[in-house]
Specification:
The chain is of the alpha/beta class and 464 residues long. Helices cover 34% and strands 20% of the residues. The strands form 4 sheets. It has a 7-stranded mixed beta sheet. Strands 1, 2, 3, 9, 13 and 19 form a 6-stranded parallel beta sheet that branches. Strands 4-8-5 form a 3-stranded antiparallel beta sheet. The radius of gyration is 22 Å and the shape is globular. Bound molecules: flavin-adenine dinucleotide. The site of flavin-adenine dinucleotide has 32 residues, from helix 1, strand 3 and helix 10.
Length: 464
């Protein structure tokens, strides 16, 4: 909406590039961190505000030696990418997820004995919700690159704006925040540099400083362990082909989920340069408290347990794996600091389990939403009011998405027993009747997808 009135400064530039905070200067946010940080930066820039994104990594998505990830963007998130004119880039870098096969995780006792059924994300679901988005799967770094390129100055010029006079976004790499001063609305970098702003958005993840600062304000206890960890790795498609298991991912069979006991596994093709395969395993066998960037102490084959021979073969071909513990996170009462000037967003505000279906789409929604809210003001005094409005609107929705994701993980990793027998019988009955495998008993989980589509479609209509 380029506007001749200056906006606000969100995590603001260093003092040498003074943004006249306290006057009617652009609202500037230090939106530090990447995915929702970049998404929020895109949306705030559209709303006419200046943003400085501070990222501790030296380059986009970390160094090339670090493991890459798999970004599954549910339809509500991909709709936002389309709204931001990123369709061509998204189509060139993602694969669609129209359906998935569901299997029992254990060894196959007879041909086909593991099959539980096929789930289709029906076209009608998207059509009813007037959604153009589809579930899409990217490489983590590809998604970051798409968002980052959207922020480059030529986009401003293309949109008819003036690259020199319009709202300005800069992304500073190697800029690790070591302190957040909520009262002064300032952050200090490891280099000693201090950035002040009209507002600070902390999109620095569930282990980041902003969440910690807000937890300290609430005297919160730590997140608690659940005993499950998520292993993630990428298998080069060439190896899948060479080893004769490409049929696992052919004929539209791009993704499969393998359920319990006590483990869950999801495999799927990621489009992009190589169409490689991502393997994700929920396992009770590792207590390593790792991150998305650290290589694992044990290999993925060490923590597979008893499984189908094809899964073991696939896992044996995987590149470096990461291991992230699944925790029951402390739920922040307030996503906003008591000063009203610092907001947590993305995983920092509402941590999803690793590899949950809505991690990325919720982060994209957060970014789009913060931009929409701040399109209504250029008044510095209203930052606390708008930050609180953000939480008020986003918290219930994120809680519903998070709840649906947790149900999926519980269903996937359910131990053998009476409940699991009921689950399998219901799924198999759906499949035998030609229905999608998650229909019926699991309608609540399905409904969440429908709700997601409807609500975002409505929001997009309102914003037009
Ligand atoms: C390398 C990587 C790979 C991932 N792969 C997957 C995957 O395969 N599947 C999946 O479901 N999710 C993955 N994720 C998580 C996924 O990105 C998030 O769940 C989602 O995008 C929302 O993330 P977030 O930005 O809120 O937090 P995060 O993704 O945790 O990002 C936090 C960011 O903040 C930066 N940061 C942290 N502290 C500071 C600081 N003090 N100063 C400056 N910058 C800081 C970090 O470098 C990082 O870029 C991955 C994350 C990363 C970083």
């Amino acid at each position: 909406m380029p506007n001749s009135e200056p906006g606000l400064d969100f995590v603001r530039a260093p003092p040498s590039v003074d943004n006249q905070a306290g006057t009617s200067a652009p609202l500037c946010t230090p939106a530090y961190r990447i995915q929702p940080g970049l998404a929020a930066a895109i949306a705030l820039k559209k709303s006419g505000h200046n943003v400085v994104v501070l990222e501790k990594d030296s380059g986009l998505g970390g160094s090339s030696g670090e493991p890459d990830g798999c970004a599954r963007v549910a339809a509500n998130g991909s709709k936002i990418l389309l709204d931001w004119d990123l369709e061509a880039m998204a189509l060139a870098n993602a694969t669609f997820l129209p359906s998935f096969w569901l299997y029992k995780y254990g060894p196959e006792e007879a041909p086909g004995s593991n099959v539980l059924g096929l789930h289709n994300y029906e076209d009608s679901l998207f059509k009813e919700a007037q959604m153009e988005g589809r579930h899409m799967v990217f490489r983590h770094r590809s998604l970051l690159r798409i968002l980052y390129e959207k922020l480059q100055p030529q986009d401003n010029t293309k949109a008819g704006g003036d690259a020199d006079c319009g709202p300005h976004v800069s992304v500073l790499f190697g800029a690790e925040v070591v302190n957040v001063d909520c009262a002064a609305c300032a952050v200090t970098l490891r280099s000693g540099e201090v950035h002040t702003a009209d507002a600070i958005i902390g999109a620095d993840g569930e282990r980041g400083i902003v969440r910690r600062v807000l937890m300290d304000e609430e005297n919160a206890g730590p997140d608690s362990a659940t005993g499950l960890a998520l292993y993630s790795a990428i298998v080069p498609k060439a190896l899948v082909v060479q080893n004769g298991i490409a049929d696992m991912f052919e004929d539209g069979n791009l993704s499969s989920i393998w359920a319990g006991p006590n483990r869950g596994n999801r495999n799927g093709v990621m489009e992009g340069e190589a169409e490689d395969v991502n393997i994700c395993l929920y396992t009770p066998d590792s207590s390593q408290d790792g991150t998305w960037k650290d290589e694992t102490e044990m290999t993925i084959t060490d923590v597979l347990g008893s499984c189908d021979a094809r899964i073991r073969q696939l896992a044996g071909l995987a590149g470096p794996a990461t291991c992230v513990q699944i925790k029951k996170p402390y739920e922040l009462e307030s996503w906003v600091s008591s000063s009203g000037r610092v907001l947590a967003l993305g995983q920092a505000a509402h941590p999803f389990a690793p590899a949950a279906f809505h991690c990325y789409s919720a982060a994209l929604e957060d970014g789009a939403f913060i931009g929409r809210i701040f399109s209504h003001t250029r008044d510095h005094a209203r930052v606390p009011e708008f930050f609180h409005a953000f939480q008020e609107h986003r918290e219930p929705r994120c809680a519903r998405m998070n709840g649906a994701d947790n149900v999926y993980i519980q269903l996937m990793t359910m131990p053998d027993g009476v409940m699991q027998e009921g689950r399998d019988a219901g799924l198999r009955a759906n499949h035998a009747a030609g229905r999608s495998v998650l229909d019926g008993d699991l309608q609540d989980v399905q409904d969440e997808f429908i709700f997601v589509c409807v609500e975002v479609a409505a929001a997009s209509i309102r914003s037009n």
